[in-house]
From TrEMBL:
Protein family membership: Belongs to the peptidase S45 family.
Residue stretches of biased makeup (Low complexity): 203-215
Basic and acidic residues: bias regions: 216-225
Organism of this sequence: Streptomyces atriruber
UniProt keyword terms in alphabetical order: Hydrolase, Signal, Zymogen
Name used for this protein in its record: Penicillin acylase family protein
The organism's place on the tree of life at top rank: Bacteria
Length: 807
């Protein structure tokens, strides 16, 4: 239960009397999977506005307990669904053909998901990683947090009734073990590697022998088509996760201290949502921020001295090895002329309403055999060739150690120290600022150690095309000399060490919007890194161009405060419109008879659209008129016309922020896109100058909440991707701005922070915190963070919950 208390009450600031704890998991021991965790753990949870818990505990196991309890209270159904996934039990409950969702993998069906995760489970993959001593494996604090998290989740299940209709009576909501928590962490670590290829891993099968006398069919992938598919697969333009983040150094701020604005773009539903909390162990840890669901640490956030956020990085976290198969056996491959047998991993999955399904997966010294990275990138297994996927994050369970290091850091130097010592982040950049006035960007991520020289020497014909185009290396697996290299400062073989990571320290601003590290600061480009980290001197996305324009202007203006960060978050400026809208309006007005021909060959009256474009404010505010028209027009135009043909002035690396520019309105695709956009709006009953918020909104408990922001191709900082309903316009948001934080410092001990969780704390429609912050987001209002004790106690609606296991 929750205990409401007044400010004057003693609300349990001193910790509860310590209870006897179960024996801790040793640094080299893996938690047992035999039974759910338990052992007399306890914590105090103080809830402030919007259901944000401030978790107070005496050690890491008890802190994990309070975190697991509080997450279960808000997100029990989403968490339980994730544990069902990593146990490989979705087909048993939901059938084999349903979609598992994209939260923990790219699997297209429950069966594919179960085959992969059951394979991980039966191979003891996570247990082996837990057993490795730090720094190669996770440290004691992380293991204690996982143990406590599982116990807290289980205690909440035992002591409370589930009211979320998504799983209120579900038989698949069950107690968990610390190993389940670790397995979910593993799934997150490999999202950019094995997680991309699950269908190709679980469906891989050796070729069958052709009929007697027939010639074997060899379907080698087309290099150019594969390179194009790889480039699209790893492009931020097509990702369901992204982010903006900027750190300002003290030379730009009003008081000489640093500032940080973090704006991650993540899914609004499912297991990759963020959840807010403050975690405190007196004298040891005090950190506030957001955690991915199921994570027992704060992933992005701040403490009294430093703040950080992450952006999805361009580093390619996997590579392929092209195998030359033994002519006598398609399940054996040659290395330096010697035949090596593939390893079989036979997995059986129980299926609802049917017989269990048994499949065999094939593994090599390089990793699993894979027959594709999505449907667009086939890698056929023939009688002569197969492909193996190398993912160094499949042996990396150190991410939480990195996060704990951030939580106890006292400066950006401390952030770098944690990155250097733990090397746990799989697929993100880190952007940070501190109260001392320092700024930082570091692309410190776990990547295959593939240098441009190695790629030059060892790429197969396919790799010679895919590596320059996308950073996906395809190496000759038949030569031992083509094995991945290692750095002396790397904690695991086959990855780059900290000294090789693109890093910028103490620049006036350090910004990233999911392009490579090159243009972190337009005046101090970062160069000298290998292609696998990202490109150098190439065209930036519209979002990066707009972001660099904005933050460079802010830095030049100077005297920045947290309020400036808040304004930037909801400026909703459309960089694409500043480049193209005026020319589009003029060209529209010049069309003969005010008509344009659509893709269906019909003439469309676009005269009202010309006027709407001319008078639009070039913003994606809820009350902006003409914004929806330009959005639908721009989506259609950029989908139909290659980027190289769109602009009259081409890209130049000498002016990467302002080029390319000048829309070529003479292109036939221009008139077609304009006509189709008008037709689309008319069919939906939407006026071309309708306010954006009338048709871009979410509905929560029957209430419509208008949402500002715009899509990737428009370049809007406040990114929003929503489903288009041809009868209503945009409705449900799929992904976009999520846990937003604007953090600075003043002369006091407490950080000055404003936060906002766009989709709110709870997925339960019966929770008071199902849509409260979503309403704030729609109104572009913020939550003032309560970090220091006086601020927590100062909340007039403070609620205190003392939670413990019941034996």
């Amino acid at each position: 239960m929750r205990i409401r208390t007044r400010r004057s009450a003693a609300v349990g600031i001193t910790l509860l009397t310590a209870l006897a704890l179960l024996p801790s998991v040793g640094a080299g021991a893996a938690p047992r999977d035999a039974r759910p965790s338990g052992g007399g753990l306890h914590a105090t949870i103080r809830y402030t506005e919007y259901g944000i818990p401030h978790i107070l505990a005496e050690d890491y196991a008890n802190l994990g307990f309070g975190t697991g309890w509080a997450q279960a209270a808000d997100q029990v159904c989403t968490l339980a669904d994730g544990y069902l996934t990593v146990r490989g039990e979705r087909s048993r409950h939901f059938g084999p053909d349903a979609s598992p969702g994209s939260a923990l993998s790219s699997a297209s069906t429950n069966l594919g998901s179960d085959l992969y995760f059951r394979g991980v489970r039966e191979a003891g993959t996570v247990e082996k990683l837990l057993a490795q001593p730090a720094p190669a494996g996770p440290g004691r604090r992380t293991k204690e947090l996982m143990r406590g998290f599982a116990a807290g989740y289980n205690a909440w299940l035992k002591q409370n009734r589930i009211t979320d209709p998504a799983c209120a009576k579900a038989d698949w909501v069950r107690p968990i073990s610390a190993l389940d928590v670790a397995r979910q962490g593993f799934a997150v670590q490999v999202l950019g590697g094995q997680g991309r290829g699950i269908d190709g891993i679980t469906a891989a099968a050796p070729p069958t022998a052709p009929p007697s006398g027939a010639t074997p069919r060899e379907d080698a992938p087309d290099p150019r088509r594969t390179a194009k598919a790889a480039r699209e697969l790893f492009s931020a333009q097509n990702a369901d996760m992204g982010s903006n983040a900027v750190a300002f150094s003290g030379v730009t701020t009003a008081n000489g201290k640093g500032l940080l604005l973090g704006n991650p773009h993540y899914p609004w539903q499912g297991g990759r949502r963020f959840w807010q909390s403050q975690q405190t162990i007196p004298g040891e840890l005090n950190v506030s921020g957001a955690s991915l669901l199921g994570t027992s640490v704060v992933n992005i956030g701040f403490n009294k001295d430093v703040a950080w956020s992450h952006t999805v990085a361009t580093g390619v976290t996997l590579n392929l090895h092209q195998l030359t198969l033994d002519p006598a056996d398609p399940t054996a491959y040659l290395v330096d002329g010697k035949s090596r047998k593939m390893m079989k991993r036979t997995v059986t999955v129980p299926v609802k309403g049917g017989a269990p399904v048994t499949r065999t997966q094939w593994w090599t010294r390089y990793g699993p055999v894979v027959t594709g990275l999505g449907a667009q990138l086939p890698l056929p297994w023939s009688s002569t060739t197969a492909y193996a996927l190398n993912d160094p994050n499949a042996v990396n369970l150190r991410g939480s150690d990195t996060d704990l290091g951030f939580g106890t850091a006292r400066s950006t130097a401390g952030i770098l120290k944690s990155l250097r010592e733990t090397q746990g982040l799989p697929w993100v950049n880190t952007v940070a600022a501190d109260r001392h006035g320092h700024s930082l960007l570091s692309q410190s991520q776990v990547l295959p150690h593939i240098t441009d020289d190695l790629a030059q020497r060892c790429s197969t014909p396919l790799g010679k095309v895919t590596y320059p185009a996308s950073g996906v290396a395809v190496l000759d697996g038949s030569r031992g000399a083509c094995a991945l290299g290692s750095d002396k400062d790397a904690v695991q073989p086959g990855i780059f060490g900290p000294s090789r990571m693109p890093t910028l320290k103490d620049a006036p601003y350090a910004e990233n919007s999911n392009d490579s590290a090159w243009l972190t600061n337009a005046d101090q480009p970062i160069t000298g890194y290998e292609r696998i980290f990202g490109t150098i001197g190439t065209q930036r996305s519209m979002r990066t161009r707009g972001a660099v324009e904005d933050v460079a202007a802010m830095a030049e203006k100077g005297d920045l405060t947290v309020r400036d960060l808040q304004r930037q978050q909801f400026a909703n400026r459309v960089p694409a419109a500043d480049l193209a809208a005026a020319d589009a309006a003029k060209a529209c007005a010049a069309l003969p008879g005010g008509t344009a021909t659509g893709s269906d060959g019909k003439a469309v009256d676009v005269s009202k659209a010309c006027n709407a474009l001319a008078h639009w404010d070039h913003r994606m505010d809820s009350d902006s008129r003409g914004a929806l028209l330009f959005d639908r027009f721009w989506r259609k135009l950029t989908a139909a016309v290659p980027n190289a043909q769109l602009w009259k002035v081409p890209f130049t690396a000498a002016d990467p922020v302002r080029t390319p520019n000048t829309l070529d309105t003479a292109l036939p695709g221009f008139r077609t896109a304009l006509a189709d956009a008008v037709t689309e709006l008319t069919a939906a009953g939407i006026a071309v100058d309708a306010p954006l918020g009338d048709n871009q909104y979410v509905v929560r408990n029957g209430k419509r909440i208008p949402v500002s922001g715009g899509t990737e191709s428009l370049g809007v900082w406040n990114k929003v991707e929503a489903d288009w309903d041809k009868a209503k316009g945009y409705t449900e948001v799929v992904h976009g701005s999520s846990h937003i934080q604007a953090v600075g410092w003043n002369s006091g001990r407490c950080p000055e922070a404003r936060t906002l969780l766009s989709y709110s704390q709870s997925a339960n429609p019966n929770s008071p915190h199902y849509s409260d912050q979503t309403s704030l987001y729609g109104k572009e209002r913020w939550v003032t963070s309560r970090f220091c004790e006086k601020d927590v106690l100062g909340d007039p609606e403070l609620e205190v919950v003392r939670v413990r296991e019941r034996r």
